[in-house]
Amino acid sequence: MSNPRGRFGIHGGQYIPETLMNAVIELEAAYDKYKDDPEFNRELNALLNDYAGRPSRLYFAEKMTRDLGGAKIYLKREDLNHTGAHKINNVLGQALLAKKMGKTRLIAETGAGQHGVATATAAALMGMECVVFMGEEDTKRQALNVYRMRLLGADVIPVKTGTATLKDAVSEAMREWTRRISDTHYCLGSVMGPHPFPTIVRDFQAVISKEIKQQLLEKEGKLPDAVIACVGGGSNAIGSFYNFINDESVALIGCEAAGRGIDTFETAATVNTGRLGIFHGMKSYFCQDDFGQIAPVYSISAGLDYPGVGPEHAYLHDIGRAQYVPVTDDEAVEAFEYLAKTEGIIPAIESAHAVAYAQKIAPTMAKDKIIVVTLSGRGDKDCAAIARYRGEDINE
Amino acid sequence: MNRISSAFENGKAFIPFITCGDPDLETTAKVVREAVKNGADLIELGIPFSDPTAEGPVIQAANIRALSGGVTTDKVFDLVRELRTDVRIPLVFMTYANVVFSYGAERFISTCKETGIDGLILPDLPYEEREEFEPVCKKYGIALIPLIAPTSENRIAMIAKAAEGFIYVVSSLGVTGERSEITTDIGAIVKIIRENTDLPCAVGFGISTPEQAKKMSALSDGAIVGSAIIKIIEKFGKDAAPHVGEYVRSMKSAI
Prior knowledge:
By secondary structure, chain A is an alpha/beta fold. Chain A is 43% helix and 19% strand. Helix content of chain B is 44%, strand content 13%. In chain B, strands 5-4-3-2-1-9-8-7-6 form a nine-stranded parallel sheet.
């Protein structure tokens, strides 16, 4: 979808310091060299299958379907991947690529900690050094994941600047990359940042929609009517959408974190409340004030608590191919509890945003229609925070 | 002809960087005038940005102080208008692409022209993306000043050829902030720049002492100092102007 300069319509590009330009050019050249290389793909597929546990299951949520009384609901179980989220798909690809490029050190940003855990995991597996930047606020919300990363041998650096959340972690990882480039690969966790990251991450996540298509054709003999995924930067969503973009009959729905509501300032719903801007290496939509200062966004979900959205999503929004809907904290928490009680599956609070929207639209659709909801991750990491949200103080 | 070239006609140029509105715009105006009085040849005025990804902790903190004080792009333009009643040396803005983009390229750059800004330094606008603002900069005669980094290598010639105003040579890897030692071979970078343009080049990032400024300007046409000045402002707050003036005098006399 992107042209050679990494543009998705007017979005994308490479708005980064000159210090990093040769690094992204080198990365693009390496990616072009390896992406269709049979040996690289054989190694990557072996890792995805034998190590990460792909293909992930496409599960028919029969009770949920019956309870909602409308469209059939399938859950794409990225939560069952090794490390508990879709993040591993991208990280294994990038770590393998970095290794081929002769890099010995991975750095990463993380919000909820899932991408940090995945990067620390890949670094441990491949014998690479790993440093993860995480907003100090998020290290508190996701203390368990901090421990997991350290257990895997990574250094976790709490970022205290700005709002001490995901955007600040991205800024600090970018700063670290300018300090140390020659042996270091910045393993960016979402379909954002400067070209070629939005394309590389999308390609590594596209396995999600490739599998959904095959699995649903086997089970139902047809395409889904809607694919629903949560959107922060948007990597699990683009992965879920990508192989359906040309199938016009499939509605593509991204669920943004509305926080306390899109009519409040405590929201992270970028497409719904942001406007066009340039930040973190890309042109896209951002939550910002009248003078272009990036807004301090809010969501209960550390993984969706980001003021921007990947450039390909901005483009899919512009051309009307995908729609982006806001889901509030309250709705997401209710969906978190609903899926646990109805299907015995505890989704990540990020993924619960997608579940919440499926609950809304399924009853409005005919029984022969099919919705696929991507469960991007599992919710063990969120249990303590949701308990606190419900006024219960538990130890993790 | 842009007045930036005049900054390099008085020996080696000393170029201070000041974050506008840190701690308030009245202080910024006083600091600028003291710097001019004590030998600054060109001043980089920073328009604060919420998430300055090329800055180290010192300038990040200055950005936050300025924004918390309520500084906006409009107020910075008002400051420039007021400064231009008596300040004659070249003034350039240093800020981030979104500050310009959000204001509207045409509106921002035409207001630069109207208020008396001579150039624009945007650390997140590399050569590949300069089309974003360059046509409008050309239209209004505002120099879009490029940065060349220690990692630029094969890109130096291309960037130098397309440059306007002067060339900002980034001394070291990493973000802005003081360094005890600068190890990059600045001489080698400047040699390639000279082969490709007649524009002057000044070295910035990590310079704080008169010795460093002397060494870096000997290899180029001038020295840019940011974090060391911001630290003085951080320390003395509203009373910073004479201290900055004294520092500028010592740096200018060293080079």
